[in-house]
Write a structure and sequence with these properties.
By secondary structure, the protein is mainly beta. The chain has a single domain, classed as Jelly Rolls (Sandwich). Helices cover about 5% and strands about 50% of the residues. The strands form six sheets. A seven-stranded antiparallel β-sheet has the order 1-22-19-24-17-14-13, with no helix packed on it. The protein has a seven-stranded antiparallel β-sheet with strand order 2-3-4-11-6-9-12. Strands 5-10-7-8 form a four-stranded antiparallel β-sheet. It is globular and about 55 Å long. The N and C termini lie far apart (about 55 Å). The chain binds manganese (II) ion.
Length: about 290
C-alpha cells in the first residue's frame, strides 16, 4: 500500500511585487525564505499572479526586453491573455487555460506583455510563471518554444462528473502531457467540484507542491485556502485531495536535479564563471537582438 506524502508546510502568499507594469506576483520561491532554492528542484522559481482586475491601459502592460539562460520559463494563463516575443524568432499569444513553455537554454532575449486587446480593455488577470532548471548537460541546448494550448493537454474526466485533470507535463493515471521536458516531472491542473475527493500517487523522491488557484481544499485532511502553496515532504507517495469548495489546483512534482546552483538575475547556471560568461554573451550580442 502506498504511504501518504505528509505536509511540510502550507505557505501563505508572500507580499506581491510588480514585474514591469503587467505582472503583480507573489514569489513563493526562491526568495520568500520559506522554501530553500533547491527545495522544489527542478522548479527553481514560482511567481504567482493571483487574481487582479487590470483597468484599461493606453500602453501595453508588460515587461520589456530581458535575457534568460540555463533554464526554461513556463507561463500558465488562468485569466487574461499574455503575448511574448523572443530573439530566436518565436512569438505568440496564450489565452486562458494555455501554457507557454520556453526553453531559454544557451540564451535568448525576450519580452512578455499583456496581449494588446486585453491590455486596452483590461480585465481579470491570473497567471503563474515557473522557472524550470535544466541539468548541466542540457544548459546549452538551443532555445525553443512549446505552445501548449489547452486542447493539446492530456485530459482526464474524473468519475461521477466530479472534476477533471489537465496534464501539461508528465503523466497522470496513464494520461500523458504534451510538454517535452529535460528531466522527469509532472505538471497538472486539477479541477474538483465541491465535495469531490481524489487520491493519486507521485514518486516519494520527487519534490512536490500544490498551489491553490481557486477555492479551498483539504490535502491529506489539512485545509489550504485560495492562493496558498502546499509543500509536501519526501516521505511517501499518496495525496488525497478533498474539495471543500469548487477548486482549481496546480500540481508540481519533479525529480530533483542534484547539482550546484549559481543563480543571478535571469541566469541559472551551475558555477559563477558561467554566469559571468552569460553576462558577457548578452553584452556582445550572442543572445541575438530584439527591439523594445
Ligand atoms: Mn522573462
Amino acid at each position: 500500500m502506498a504511504t501518504k506524502k505528509s505536509i511540510e508546510n502550507i505557505i501563505a502568499p508572500p507580499p506581491p511585487h510588480m514585474v514591469g507594469d503587467g505582472f503583480r506576483v507573489h514569489n513563493f520561491f526562491p526568495n520568500s525564505r520559506m522554501i530553500d532554492k533547491k527545495r522544489m528542484s527542478p522548479f527553481f522559481l514560482m511567481d504567482y499572479g493571483s487574481k487582479i482586475e487590470f483597468g484599461p491601459s493606453k500602453n501595453v502592460r508588460g515587461v520589456g526586453v530581458h535575457p534568460h539562460a540555463g533554464f526554461e520559463t513556463v507561463t500558465i494563463a488562468y485569466h487574461g491573455r499574455i503575448a511574448h516575443h523572443d530573439s530566436a524568432g518565436h512569438s505568440g499569444v496564450i489565452g486562458e487555460g494555455d501554457v507557454q513553455w520556453m526553453t531559454a537554454g544557451a540564451g535568448l532575449l525576450h519580452k512578455e506583455y499583456h496581449e494588446e486587446t486585453f491590455s486596452k480593455t483590461g480585465g481579470l488577470f491570473q497567471m503563474v510563471q515557473l522557472w524550470v532548471n535544466l541539468p548541466a548537460k542540457s544548459k546549452k541546448t538551443p532555445p525553443k518554444y512549446q505552445e501548449i494550448t489547452n486542447a493539446k493537454m492530456g485530459h482526464l474526466e474524473i468519475e461521477h462528473n466530479s472534476g477533471s485533470v489537465e496534464v501539461i507535463a508528465g503523466e497522470f493515471k496513464g494520461v500523458k502531457g504534451p510538454a517535452y521536458t529535460f528531466t522527469p516531472m509532472n505538471v497538472y491542473n486539477l479541477k474538483l467540484n465541491k465535495g469531490a475527493k481524489l487520491s493519486f500517487s507521485l514518486p516519494k523522491n520527487y519534490n512536490t507542491g500544490i498551489l491553490v488557484i481557486d477555492g479551498t481544499a483539504k490535502f491529506n485532511d489539512e485545509a489550504a485556502a485560495e492562493d496558498h502553496f502546499v509543500l509536501f515532504k519526501n516521505d511517501g507517495e499518496e495525496i488525497t485531495v478533498e474539495a471543500t469548495e469548487d477548486t482549481a489546483l496546480l500540481v508540481l512534482s519533479g525529480e530533483p536535479i542534484d547539482e550546484p546552483i549559481a543563480a543571478y538575475g535571469p541566469f541559472l547556471m551551475n558555477h559563477w564563471d558561467e554566469v559571468e560568461q552569460a553576462i558577457q554573451d548578452v553584452n556582445s550580442g550572442k543572445f541575438g537582438v530584439l527591439e523594445d
